[in-house]
Amino acid sequence: MRIASRIFSHAWSIDTRSVDADHLRQLHAAIPWRCVFALSILLAVQGTTRAAELPSGTAILQDLKSFSNLGSVLMVAAHPDDENTQLITYLARGRGCRMAYLSLTRGDGGQNLLGPEFGEELGVIRTQELLAARRLDGGRQYFTRAIDFGFSKDYKETLAIWDRQEVLGDVVRVIRTFRPDVIVTRFSTVPGNTHGHHTASAVLALAAFKISGDPKAYPEQLVDGITPWQPKRIFMNAGFGGPRAGAGAGNAASVVRIDDGGVDPVLGQSFSIIARRSRAMHKTQGFGNFAGASGGGPHQEAFTLLDGEPASKDILDGVDTTWERVPNGAEIGALTNDAIAKFDVKEPPASVPALLAIRSKLAALPADILVDDKRQQFDRILASCLGLSVETTVAEAEIVPGEALHLHHAATITSNVAVRWMAVRYPTTSGQIADAIQLQANQTATRDAIQTLPAATLLSQPYWLREDGTAGMFRVDDAKLIGRPENPPAFPVEFDFDVGGQTLTIADEPVQVTNDPKRGELRRRLDVIPPVSLRFASEVQLFAPGTTGSVQVEASASRAHSAGTLRLETPEGWKVSPAEQRFDLADVGDHAGFSFSVTAPPAPASASIAASVQINGASFSNQRIEIKYDHIPPILLQPAARLKAVALDLAIRGKTVGYIAGAGDSVAQGLAQMGYTVTQLTGADLTPEKLRGLDALVIGIRAFNVRTDLAANLPALFGYVEAGGNVIEQYNRPDGLQNAQLTPYPLRLSSDRVTDETAKMTFLAPDHPALNTPNKITDADFAGWVQERGIYYPNQWDEHFTPILACSDPGEAPLEGGLLIAHDGKGYFVYTSLVFFRQLPAGNPGAYRLFANLVSLGK
Predict the structure, then answer these.
(1) N or C: which end of the chain has fewer CB within 10 A?
(2) Which of 6-15, 96-105, 445-454 has the lowest mean pLDDT?
(3) pTM exceeding 0.85
(4) What is the DSSP letter of 244?
């Protein structure tokens, strides 16, 4: 008999046929942070063939040992992929510590090696990648509100953009809520040859260590049980057997070394293998193949003391990791040790009486963050010994506020221990079902209920993206959410059971269960959606100053008989007609397009135009963006439907442009906005016949990193240039190139970049057509750029290339390889590392004008 196995909310979400780091499919988005350790054991790296097998006796015993360990370690770094998964695995799975990783950012500013998502969308993907990693290595996950705004060479710049005090406060909050005994940074507090975010993460961790125990620091946090907390010490994790250069504080005497090698007692696999599979979850950063084999032999880690009490043999030296650290907790520790000694892995239910005795002692302790955390863990252990699992399912994973939720609740027990299912409660509505049911071994009891989702329920959207923030900080109005990796359940559910006269409450949430032919059984969280979603035809629309253009908006129905009005909101100086339009969408999935006339102001300007619908007195203004990758759960984003409208003086030459996509960008849409007819091409299309008639050919970002169909067709491409064609090739990374030759003449890529988006541009070839025809480029065209000027600049090139522009970060020599143009035969070949792929979607006028000049070369 297949056992539904949701011991706790969000516990498991997919029936996997081979559960390892490369094949975990659609794991649930919201494992509670209190449950990660046992769940990472249950979601074994290999061998399980069900979505949710109950834990083995060995796994339960290991979790019980973890319950007896109150030691806690918090790792702090800047980004997804900065964490030391070997150390996390060893401490969480091997020693049973409470282990967590605090990533100050969500990786929003990085590059996506899998697809077209950048910025906020990429940050959400990487959040899920970190959660997938933690499900494997056993750690917990936290974040601050800091935004990854791209590579930074100076930690002081980083702290200024982030708002040092706010991010410091977030780190303090996480320390006070997680309560680590030891903090471990991954980077030095001393600036070096590394990302400014890296150094800033260590600087903030050290500063937070010094003040987290001071009630005068961030006193507004001291509510809802949060109290000051002072860790014992803070280390920098040197790694690889010795301290890193520039470690700053400490000397040889302050370095502690530990062996974090070994074998997982439940899986029988080395910590190194599990750690590699955890790291392989960072697939958008190219770590998908990281999960190689590794033995269980010694693996040395080094830690340099930054502050706090010295240690000599272990990072937890002097930390009382037993229950004796808790007032009146010594008896709980003794009872737990006795239960561990007598635990029969072949007969877990035999331990239930002993566990109930421990649980009654736990209940007598006063409320405390650490004790409450352990209570949650213990309840999971008790449920595991009982073989008790719960699940709440719904027919559809999406619901509109005010609609009825048809809930199917199930509870299963595999043991013969007497358990009564007393109630199902709904905290959101204060409703409940209170008819008691006596559970029978190896049988599933069910209850059905209908609850109405409150009309005021917020639409599903990551909490840190609900409001507009700044360049460096997300805005989060509910302080209780700060630090959490993702949203709480849209509609929480609680199951109450009577076990030996004690009430055991198991948290749950509704999921939709479907079967995929390739991936098996999938589970999806409940999402709250609007009845109608909106989409502009493009993310940016260009206007000539003072002209009127047609703005297209599409409305899509997620519910039948959706009728109302659609309107656009424009800022002062912009005009829209008509003021609103009626719509009536009869069936689910119906689409309707609407055209509004928008008039731009007479002078160059930019504006954000918002779309909204009014339906039965309620207003909705949301897009619908679905993101699907096999290694993470499906993601639904519902940001505000907005159009970036740009009024600018722009001239173009030529009409037709071919586009070869790279790793993913929206430059082709930008070309269409300029007025070009864009044809998507592949490497096989690089033939004289198909290139003939194109005014220009543009190659997408990192095309030579991700495409294998270009190398064989380069002769035809270069022949097109010689015959009078024009090619614009956007940046590639120097590592992982599919072909050594990228251009008709040699150039060498580097990791050089200019991160200051305001860096002064020097015109090296002021008379070149790229700066003059058909648009006269001036300093003003480089105002308002976002994130950076350019990345992966060539640092050597053939004399046929003419460098056009130079710029630099503060205190550095100018880089001249951002825009190189070769006049080859009758045509032009352009190689550019300028980040047009960021500027065009951002609606930067100067970037459009300069790119139009590049496309117009030779015309």
Answers:
(1) N
(2) 6-15
(3) yes
(4) P
447 contact partners, CB below 8 Å, separation of at least 6: 408, 409, 421, 424, 433, 435, 437
Return d(Cα 539, Cα 541) in angstroms, integer.
7
The amino acid at 353: P
Residue 240 sits at φ, ψ, to 5 deg, of: 55, 30
Paired residues of 498 in beta bridges: 420, 503
Length of the chain: 859
Residue pair 342/348 in contact (Cβ under 8 Å)? The answer is: no
| Alpha-helix runs per DSSP H in 558-713 | 667-674, 688-691, 703-706
Which residues 6+ apart lie within 8 Å of 689 measured at CB? none
CA distance 647 to 666: 19
Contact yes or no for 299/260 (Cβ under 8 A): yes
Contact partners, residue 722, CB within 8 Å, separation at least 6: 824, 825, 826, 827
| Phi-psi sector, 51: left (phi>0), alpha (psi -120 to 50), beta | alpha
Two structure tokens written together for 485:
């990796």
Question: 578: cis peptide before it, omega within 30°?
Answer: yes
Give residue 851's identity as a one-letter amino acid code: F
Find the DSSP H helices in 95-250: 119-137, 155-162, 164-178, 196-211
Q: Which residue has the higher pLDDT, 192 or 708?
A: 708
| pLDDT of res. 174 | 98
Contact 296, 261 (CB under 8 A): yes
Please compute the mean of the pLDDT values over residues 649-656 and round it to a whole number: 98
Contact (CB, 8 A) for 500 and 492: no
> Beta strand pairing status for 642-647 and 605-615?
antiparallel
Give me the DSSP letters along 4-39.
--BSSTT---B--SS-STTT--S--S---GGGHHHH
Cis omega (within 30 of 0) for bond into 774: yes
As a whole number of angstroms, the distance between CA 394 and CA 390 comes to: 14
Tens of pLDDT along 286-336? 887 766 556 778 899 999 999 999 999 999 999 999 999 999 999 999 999
Distance separating alpha carbons of residues 223 and 231, to the nearest angstrom:
20
CB atoms within 10 A of CB 269: 19
| Residue 398 identity (one-letter amino acid) | E
DSSP class per residue in 64-127: HHHHT---EEEEEESSTT-S-HHHHHIIIIIS--EEEEEESS--TTS--SSSS--HHHHHHHHH
Q: What is the largest CA-CA distance in the chain?
A: 89
Structure tokens at 774: 């058909």
Distance, in Å, from the CA atom of 594 to the CA atom of 553, rounded to the nearest integer, reads 5
Q: CA distances (Å), 637 to each of 73, 114, 403, 455, 836, in order?
A: 33, 18, 20, 20, 25
Q: Are 267 and 44 in contact (CB under 8 A)?
A: yes
Closest of 490, 522, 494, 355 to residue 411, by C-alpha: 494
DSSP characters over 250-293:
--GGGEEEEE---B-TTT--BHHHHHHHHHTT-GGGT-TT----
- Cα Rg of the chain (Å, integer): 29
The residues facing 98 across adjacent strands are 72
User: Smallest Cα–Cα separation from 289: which of 279, 298, 299, 297?
Assistant: 279
Place of tokens 């609007």: 530
> How far is CA 285 from its chain centroid?
12
Rounded to 5 degrees, φ, ψ at 402 are: 95, -10
User: First and final CA of the chain: distance in angstroms?
Assistant: 72
- Encoded amino acid at 112, one letter: N
Contact 831, 747 (CB under 8 A): yes
Cα separation, 718 vs 800, in Å, equals 14
Residue 584: how many other CB atoms lie within 10 Å: 11
How many C-beta atoms lie closer than 10 Å to residue 330's C-beta?
13
Q: What is the pLDDT of residue 408?
A: 98
